[in-house]
């Protein structure tokens, strides 16, 4: 009995990987084994960096809040501690946005916790 292979599925799988490898240089875009390795590595980085993005943004917000409260003679940690004690629940993203774009509103928050 002849060997049965599912060439349709195999071709579809290869085309999918080669489509993801589009834009790479040289053999990385059109040689199956090289492209497969490149795409797997890239997808791994993409997965990890979707998580890193969240960390990076939080660090950015904290830096901006710190820069904003330093003008009023306070450190970031003091400010956050006083916010918690004053029972003000504003997230860091919003606070950073206020510090950059709405200095008057940010000053009002700082004054309310002093």
Overview of the structural elements:
It is built from five helices and no strands. The protein has 114 residues and is mainly alpha-helical. It has helices at residues 7-20, 32-70, 76-85, 92-101, 103-113. The model has no long low-confidence stretch (mean pLDDT 96). The chain is rod-shaped, with a radius of gyration of 26 Å. It has one domain (7-113): Orthogonal Bundle (c-terminal domain of poly(a) binding protein), CATH 1.10.1900.20. Helix content is 74%, strand content 0%.
In a few lines, what is going on in this structure?
The protein is mostly helical and 114 residues long.
Mean pLDDT: 96
The number of distinct structural domains comes to 1
Query: Looking at this structure, what is the CATH superfamily?
Result: Ribosomal protein L20, C-terminal domain
Alpha-carbon distance between the termini?
A: 85 Å
CATH class: Mainly Alpha
Q: SSE order, as H and E?
A: HHHHH
Profile the largest sheet: none
User: Structural class from helices and strands?
Assistant: mainly alpha
Low-confidence stretches: none
Report the radius of gyration as a whole number of Å: 26 Å
Shape: rod-shaped
Query: What percent of residues are in strands?
Result: under 5%
CATH topology-level name: c-terminal domain of poly(a) binding protein
How many separate helices? 5
Give a count of the beta strands, DSSP E runs of length 2 or more: 0
DSSP helix fraction: over 70%
Q: At CATH's second level, what is the architecture? A: Orthogonal Bundle
């Amino acid at each position: 009995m002849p060997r049965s292979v599912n060439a349709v599925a195999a071709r579809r799988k290869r085309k999918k990987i080669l489509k993801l490898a589009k834009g790479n240089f040289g053999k990385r875009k059109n040689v199956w084994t090289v492209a497969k390795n490149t795409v797997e590595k890239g997808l791994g980085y993409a997965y990890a960096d979707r998580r890193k993005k969240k960390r990076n943004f939080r660090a950015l917000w904290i830096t901006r809040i710190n820069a904003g409260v330093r003008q009023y003679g306070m450190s970031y940690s003091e400010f956050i501690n006083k916010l918690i004690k004053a029972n003000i629940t504003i997230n860091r993203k919003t606070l950073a946005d206020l510090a950059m774009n709405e200095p008057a509103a940010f000053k009002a928050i700082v004054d309310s916790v002093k």
